[in-house]
Amino acid sequence: MKSFQFSLAPEQLWQAINPMSFYQQGAQFGFINIDLGATPRPELEQQILDEVGSYGRQLGRIGDALEVLIRHVDLKGLGSEEQDALTILQGQLAEIRKIKRREPVEEASAPSPRSA
């Protein structure tokens, strides 16, 4: 004899949401707008995100590399607007480091140039 079962919630209470898998390039869910822009090869972009890293991680690596160049390249010939652009970037990278220190995350990849 089967027992009576009653459930107000599904057994699985999580859902993986991957905006790259949406068939529409732009979608709205509640108050959140998702616009991934036009990409000629979305499957390649998804593969890069899966195997290389998120956009944030990729930008972080670019920021790390730019900081190395800023420290070791002679920048005396820059104009004031060019110097301002680098100063703003350095400030943003410092803010990112501050946030990362608040929320430490283990990295499985190679160490950053700052920790080497």
Helix content: 40-55%
What is the element string, with H for helices and E for strands? EEHHH
Query: Which structural class is indicated by helix and strand composition?
Result: mainly alpha
Mean pLDDT: 76
Judging from the principal axes of the Cα atoms, what is the shape?
elongated
End-to-end C-alpha gap? 66 Å
Number of helices: 3
* Overall radius of gyration: 22 Å
Q: Which percent range describes the beta-strand content?
A: 5-15%
Strand order of the largest sheet: 1-2
Please summarize the sheet with the most strands: 2 strands, antiparallel
Q: How many strands appear in the DSSP assignment?
A: 2
Low-confidence stretches: none
Outline the structure in words.
By secondary structure, the chain is mainly alpha-helical. It has a domain of 50 residues. The chain has three helices and two strands; from the N terminus they run ββααα. A two-stranded antiparallel sheet has the order 1-2. A hairpin with a 2-residue loop joins β1 and β2. α2 packs across α3. The longest helix is centred in the last third of the chain and has 23 residues. It starts with 25 loop residues before the first strand and ends in a 14-residue tail after the last helix. The mean pLDDT is 76.
